What does this fold into?
Amino acid sequence: MAILVTGGAGYIGSHTCIQLLKENYEVVVLDNLSNSSPKALQRIEEITGKTVMFYQADLLDRQAVERVFEENNITGVLHFAGLKAVGESVEKPLYYYHNNITGTLILCETMRSCGVKTLVFSSSATVYGTPERVPISEEAPTGAANPYGRTKLMIEEILRDLHQADSDWRIALLRYFNPIGADESGRIGEDPTGLPNNLMPFITQVAVGKRDKLMVFGDDYDTPDGTGIRDYIHVTDLAEGHLKALEKIAAETGVKTYNLGTGFGYSVLDIVHAFLEATGVQVPYEITDRRPGDIASCYADPSLAEKELGWRAKKTIRDMCCDAWRWQQHNPNGYQ
It folds into this structure.
């Protein structure tokens, strides 16, 4: 019996594979490597001493997806695969809708035909759009502010409809906030292609000398220092949340929705200062224009996950900075 991890060579997927293997799950990874590296899978095996079955394939390739299910005894799926850059989604909405939604439809159709109806979906806090208030609970209104977020929201609705039509489905929708950090080994971490879209890899690439300065997108938001506030969660805590969700839905049918965050918000400049305190490295920065689709403040009310999953984030912002820096120091050019 195995768990299929789509996008398992990516940043969050690779850290979740480690947690699965540590808990003695068999792991099968499907990844097209468009924004990830096979070296991540090699290092997962080094860290855990266990093997991963890997298929380099795209979810849009129905025959390839069917072959994965035919050749393995899959009992559940953790679905991470998808395009994820907010700015790019604004520029290329059709590309995002086709890739993220059609890929998920093919995955679910294949699961249904193979009798596999246990799914943990990698959703996002972006489904809340511009929140009416923070912290954000799962009951907050949804209304994504960009095409990337709307693909997540649409997929959530598709999965609810799937369960409505067939109550045997067991689905967890995990709305997570801003994952940063890396495995404490320093062997795997976030390795974006080109200019980073996320804050922490931008900071660490500046710190290691790969880039001259951090670009801070906007300092005129309605926040204490004018920069955007987010809920930063250690990627290992996030990975553990996926295992807790998998355990939860294995015990009961239905659709469960959970926020995975710390419940605390930090501004961009807060993170710059925290990085300096944690590592002793000063990161020069320049204020520039806001990015399309960004919002002022977004952080979680994670109490439902603690109540129903027995999960809560444990690692501190210092842990996140130190682990991200260890990864970048050991791998200045990522997996290259």
Remarks:
- The longest strand covers residues 118-124.
- The longest helix spans residues 93-114.
- The mean pLDDT is 97.
